[in-house]
Amino acid sequence: EADIYQTPRYLVIGTGKKITLECSQTMGHDKMYWYQQDPGMELHLIHYSYGVNSTEKGDLSSESTVSRIRTEHFPLTLESARPSHTSQYLCASTATGTETQYFGPGTRLLVL
Amino acid sequence: TQLLEQSPQFLSIQEGENLTVYCNSSSVFSSLQWYRQEPGEGPVLLVTVVTGGEVKKLKRLTFQFGDARKDSSLHITAAQPGDTGLYLCAGRASGTYKYIFGTGTRLKVLA
């Protein structure tokens, strides 16, 4: 059973609002990832972190930002949401030396 | 840019039939993983393969990593409705802990 949590599960907001999607894991994993996924489609890496104070942008250009102040916490922030940000956001973590990514349940975001 | 192409994109079959899903790339990967995702949930790891030519079995599922570590296949024997879902392959390039996901195969098994 994966101990990785995301909140909120669903979010409907208006254009221009600032939002933060939360992701926490209790497995002590050093590597964490944020992916964006449209329904039934592939996952696109938008941010990743190899440890505390380490963050990198992924392959998909994103207007979001992330922080990694604590090992267990990897929040993603959108300063000004737009309808083009409507998607599902998945957080994942993995431990060094293993190949298994554990995924959270995702946050479905709808920007009106 | 590394790409992982999966085929077929969609597959609808009757219970009891066999099927194979392919995951192909022009890039070499250190490891390749297969996930299954249910609607409204995150992907769940099925298997990881790391050695060229490696074959792994998980009950009715057989996974193979290509000799050159550029491609992989997933074969399901006697499919059941419980196998329905989105199947995703993901590759990790050498020297990195970034994972590239495939385009996905949506499988529906009819009772």
Summarize the structure.
The complex is a heterodimer of chains A (112) and B (111). With 112 residues, chain A is mainly beta.
Task: Describe, in plain words, how this protein is organized in 3D.
By secondary structure, chain A is an all-beta fold. In chain A, 0% of the residues lie in helices and 49% in strands. Chain A has no helices and eleven strands. In chain A, strands 2, 4, 5, 6, 9, 10 and 11 form a seven-stranded mixed sheet that branches. Chain A has a four-stranded antiparallel sheet with strand order 1-3-8-7, with no helix packed on it. The model of chain A has no long low-confidence stretch (mean pLDDT 93). Chain B has 111 residues and is mostly beta strands. In chain B, 0% of the residues lie in helices and 53% in strands. Chain B has strands spanning 5-7, 10-14, 19-24, 31-37, 44-49, 55-58, 61-65, 71-76, 85-92, 99-101, 105-110. At the A-B interface, strand 4, strand 5, strand 9 and strand 10 of A face strand 5, strand 9 and strand 10 of B.
State the helix count of chain B: 0
User: Which of globular, elongated, flat, extended, rod-shaped describes the shape of chain B?
Assistant: globular
What percent strand of chain A?
over 45%
Shape descriptor of chain A reads globular
Helix- and strand-based class of chain B?
A: mainly beta
> Treating each run of at least 4 consecutive H or I residues as one helix, how many helices of chain A?
0
Most extensive interface between two protein chains, with residue counts = A-B, 25 and 24 residues
Structural class of chain A: mainly beta
Q: Strands, helices and their partners?
A:
The complex is a heterodimer of chains A (112) and B (111).
Chain A: E1 4-7, E2 10-13, E3 19-25, E4 31-37, E5 43-51, E6 54-57, E7 65-66, E8 76-78, E9 87-94, E10 102-103, E11 107-111
Parallel strand pairs in A: 2-11
Antiparallel strand pairs in A: 1-3, 3-8, 4-5, 4-9, 5-6, 7-8, 9-10, 9-11
Chain B: E1 5-7, E2 10-14, E3 19-24, E4 31-37, E5 44-49, E6 55-58, E7 61-65, E8 71-76, E9 85-92, E10 99-101, E11 105-110
Parallel strand pairs in B: 2-11
Antiparallel strand pairs in B: 1-3, 3-8, 4-5, 4-9, 6-7, 7-8, 9-10, 9-11
